[in-house]
Amino acid sequence: MKHLTFTFLSLFIVLSAQAQEDLSLFEAVQIGLENNFDIQIEELNIDVAQNNNNWGAAGRWPTITFDITQNNNFRDVDNPAGFQQGLTISNDITPGVNVNWTLFNGFSVQIQRSRLQELENLTRGNALVVIENAVQAIINQYYLAQLEQERLDVQKTVFSLSKDRYEYVRLKGELGSAVTFDILQEQNAFLTDSSNLVTQEINYLNTRRTLNLLMGRDVTLEYSLTDSLAVSPTDYALEDLYERMIASNSNLQNQYLNLEIAKLDTRLAKTELYPQLRLNAGAAYTLQRQDISNARFAFPDPDRPEVVRPRTLSYAAGFTLSYLLFDGGRVRQAIENTYTQERISQVQIEQQKITLRNNLMATYDLYNVRKKLLSISEENIRAAQLNLDLSEERFRNGTINSFDYRDIQVNYLNTALTNIQAKYDLIESETELLRLTGGILSEYENVN
Fold first, then answer.
1. How confident is the prediction along the chain (448 residues), in pLDDT tens digits per residue?
2. Per the domain annotation, does 420 fall within a domain?
């Protein structure tokens, strides 16, 4: 048993002696904003949306292509009435440039550019939701690590008391003033607290690893968390929270962006009802080689060369005006579908408002309940601490027995753990209120 006690003490001496970097909540959030993997992915999605948002993608500029065509022709003529008889071999190469430019298509270009801008805004809005969720997760995990740290401290206190009491009773047994039953009772309590302490140490290590993961850091890094679970309850007004939520909630703002995109889709579908005007232009230069050495002509010419190299330059430009007369109702059907999608987006906005209000009210009520629970637990922990301090001396004086002292010790443990949990629960509810009302990033970063 002495060896077991020494092992536990050595474990915690080593753990407490390790040099650790201080980490505040603000620093944890800043690290997460820079390194969190989900946030990095959303930043890349924003880059894609920005890259897509340009006039070229909207269709403003012409399409210019460069082509090279090479042909080989073999022409063997057997026509007594013809001017040329026999075999003629032709090889030619024709480079050319073609231009196609839509000059007017029912203002589709401007609408497309506006739509690309709204899609970029929606991508930023979706990224903002991810960032808010990541920050909320980091805040909760930071305080959860503090929760497990304080639980560990309580377990250490109880373990130390159990160890001291066991050593005290064991010494009395060696002196003949304590019976074997009392010694076994204290030994059992000591071993139980030892087991609880080891389990709590694992819980604490796991929460630290998860915090590192959320921050995008190596999970083996260790920090000394500087922000405690100290809380200052705030008196919130529900209607004020609701107004802030309607004005700033990121999910609701994204629904408004979806509605704007649906309206632009309707305008885009209507462009099919307008005439379209296109410019078509091109130029080509043909280099040809004709081998007529095996050809026969009706009027022989001794000076005619066996190989001729004609060249041809051609260019053209023109306009195409087109207007849809009939397509079986396809365009009208598409327009009607976009109107329906607009109505769907409007319904989704109303649904989102009601859902958010329900979540806000539930979180608001839970926050107020947790404030009351924290106040009660603060009174309980003060009473339990005082009772524990008084009972230790009474136990040594023999005023109370080991069973009573153990009950007081367990009561202190449960009360302390309840108090720590009440602090964390209140912080968690307040963090959710901040997220719902769009204010969770205000203290950390102004995300545009």
1. 444 444 444 444 444 445 578 999 999 999 999 999 999 999 999 999 999 999 999 999 999 999 999 988 887 767 675 666 677 788 889 999 999 999 999 999 999 999 999 999 999 999 999 999 999 999 999 999 999 998 898 888 888 877 877 777 777 676 666 667 667 777 787 888 888 899 989 999 999 999 999 999 999 898 999 998 888 889 999 999 999 999 999 999 999 999 999 999 999 999 999 999 999 999 999 888 877 777 666 666 676 777 778 889 999 999 999 999 998 999 999 999 999 999 999 999 999 999 999 999 999 999 999 999 999 999 999 999 898 888 877 877 778 776 787 788 888 888 989 999 999 999 999 999 999 999 999 877 654 4
2. yes
User: Domain of 157?
Assistant: 2-35+105-275+323-436
How far is residue 321's CA from residue 278's CA, in Å, rounded to a whole number?
Answer: 7
Report how many domains make up the chain: 1
Give bridge partners of residue 75 from the DSSP assignment. 88
Quote the tokens at residue 165: 């009491």
**pTM for the complete prediction?**
0.82
Task: Assess contact for 437 and 244: CB atoms under 8 A.
Answer: yes
> Among residues 100, 158, 408, 39, which one has the least CA distance to residue 276?
100
> What CATH number is given to the structural domain containing 360?
1.20.1600.10
Does the residue 429 lie in any domain? yes
Is 237 part of any domain?
yes
Taking alpha carbons only, the member of 118, 155, 442, 358 closest to residue 261 is 118
- Residue 310 in any domain: the answer is no
